[in-house]
Every structure is written in C-alpha cells, then in structure tokens.
Amino acid sequence: MTDLDNRPLRIFWPVSKLAPTGGIGRVVWAATAALAARGHEVHMSGPLREGAVTAPPGVTLHVENRHGVKLAYLPRLVAIQRAIRADIIHFHNALPRGEIVQGMRALRRLIGNPRLVVTPHTSARANYPKRRARQGLRLADHVIAVSQWSADHAVAAGADPARVDVVHNGIDRVADRPAALVAPNIIALGRLKHVKGFDLLIQAFDQIAERQPGWRLRIAGEGSEDAALRELAAKTKASDRIDFVGQIGGQAKRDFLANASIGAVPSRLESFGGVLLELHAEGLPCIASDVGGLPEIGAAGTILVPGEDIAALARALERLIEEPSLRSRLGEDARQSASQQTWANVAERYENLYRHYLSR
Question: Which of 67, 71, 239, 303 has its CA 20 to 30 A from that of 50?
Fold first, then answer.
C-alpha cells in the first residue's frame, strides 16, 4: 500500500456557477459535500450569479470573475491551483471548456501536475457541435460521464474510450419504506421545457382521463413552456384534473412526492435522469421514455416507453392505474434500486477512480 492509497486527496471542482440550484448545481453541491465527508480536502470555484451562497459542508469556495472572454478566468484558476495544489481538477459544465483544459494542461508542471478530469452534463447538445467541447473531451486526462449513453457520445466526439468512465449521479435521501401509493395522482416535475416532454404527458393523460375519473395529473416546475403547457391542458377533456403547482422545494416538495401513486418522466432526451432517480427514492413506480440515460436509471421500478410515443405512454399510465399490485412491486423495486445510489456511494466511486487515475 502506498501513501496514495490512504491519504486524503486534494480535489478541485471548477463549475459553471456557485449555486446549489439547477441540475448541475444540485449535483456538485451534494457530491462535493460527500467527498469532504470522506475526509478529502475539497475546493470548488465558479462565478456567483445568485448572490451569496453557503458552501457545502467541508468545502472551500473560490469566487471567480468571468466577465469578458472565456480565457479571462484561466489565470484565476491557475492562481487557485497554485495555492491549493490539488491532485485532481475535475471540471463540471454542460459542455467541456476545451480552451481552459488546454491552458491548464499546458501549465501542468507549474501548478502541481494535477490530473485533469471533465464531466459533460449536456443532453440537448450531446453531439458536441462546438469545437471547444470536442477539444475538452480529447485533451482531458479522463472523462467521467453521468451515464453510458453520455459516455458513448463523448467517445463519438473524440474522447479516448480507454479514458472514459461512468459514474451515475446520486440522491440525497431514500425513503425507509415504500410509498403508500394511495393518492390517485400522477406526478411529474422538472423544468417546463420542450425537451422534458410534459406536453406528451398531458396528451397521454387526456386519452385515458374519461376511463379513469378519479385520477389527477400534477406537474411541478417552472420554465419557458409554462404558458404553452397550461394552454394545452385547458383544451383537454380533463382540464379540471390537471394541476400546475409551480416551483416547489423543501416540505412542499416532500408533500408533493408523498401524495402520489405514479411518477412520470416523459422526456424527449436526458443525459442521466435525476428526476427519475428522485421519484425512485420515494418508492414510486414510474413511467419513463426509453431515451438517453433514462433506461440505465429505469432498469428497475419503471415501465419504459418509446420516446414521443403518446399512445404508448397512455397505455402504460392506464396499466399502472389498473394494476395496484404492479404499482406496489415496481415501487419497492424502485426504492431498492435508489438505495444503491446515495451520494455517499457516489463519492466512494469518485474517490476510487481518482486514486486509480493518480496511480497510472
């Protein structure tokens, strides 16, 4: 056993913004806290866009000034790295920032010879049309993708498959028992954007609503499609049973999840599927599109349907409504699956990969 096998690591995560909101924000806040809880020295840098924030427990924040051209903040990253001498610099962005990876790589020997890792969090632009994103994938020492689907796209864009690994994102908490599954509510949550497919879900619910008069569809979130989705719902036969509850968090969100019997993730594309994992953690049986990284998360506890197939989505909804025993079985399968994906488990996987990278 070498010193590398047991000593705490110095880990530096440059991110898109310093805020525990949005998909990437929630991931980096939870993951860095879990890494710090394992005894590592963890640093995170990024611009402040939403005012002051409280750092994750045990994590040191470094505020960047990113005004002007993208390369303008490279000297700031170099200054942080020269001060902390991190073993691992792990970039988390929607798309890899190739010019920054290239700059850090060129200066590697002056900044402590860190290993450079990137995690792309995109789904809509997973074909990597921008040269800088492809450059980031090629120049990073390693790529950690959030799903095998994302990893395959990174390889297609130029990443060396021998340097690409997969670590699924985690979940904050898992229910200690299956959901009650007694409230006749189908729920969905997330950004109200076209890619999330809420319009498909509304149309599917409309197809079965007359045969299932006791059931409601409840959608939580906010976004650019809010008005269009409300207009679509108003035109359905079940308009009085489709609720838009807006952005929710804290106890309101826990209540929303608890008062449901079916979860739906009708996305047109997802690189991972954090909402599906969140529904699983509550012990909810789910229906999800068979796209992107969703099948990897939905292997247990979920009925998968072809993406953008409204009729198939409607049939799956009606099947779960009419088969309580299936709901119960899938709900427990979902909870058990989510229990393997806590942030503590995710942090352990990160640590093992980091040590492996450093030993190569």
Answer: 71
Lookup: tokens for 290 = 């068979």
Token pair, residue 214, equals 């006791």
Q: Are residues 152 and 11 in the same domain?
A: yes
Q: Do residue 208 and residue 290 come from a single domain? A: yes
The domain total for the chain is: 2
> From the CB of residue 231, how many other CB atoms can be counted at a distance below 10 Å?
9
Write the DSSP symbol of residue 48. Answer: -
Band (pLDDT 50/70/90 cuts) for residue 285 is very high
CATH number at residue 280: 3.40.50.2000
CA–CA dist 261, 278 (Å, integer): 14
The b-or-e profile of 240-278 (16+ CB within 10 A means b, else e) is ebbebeeebeeeeeeebbebbbbbbbbbbbbbbbbbbbb
Whether the predicted pLDDT of 2 surpasses 70: no
Mean pLDDT of all residues belonging to the chain = 93
309 shares its domain with 283: yes
- Give me the amino acid identity at 202: I
Q: Are residues 309 and 232 in the same domain?
A: yes
One DSSP character per residue, 262-277 reads: EEEE--S--SS-HHHH
Q: What are phi and psi of 159, to 5 degrees?
A: -70, 145
Q: How far apart are CA 104 and CA 113, in angstroms?
A: 10
Q: What is the pLDDT of residues 30-84, one digit of tens each?
A: 999 999 999 999 999 998 877 788 999 999 999 887 655 555 779 999 999 999 9
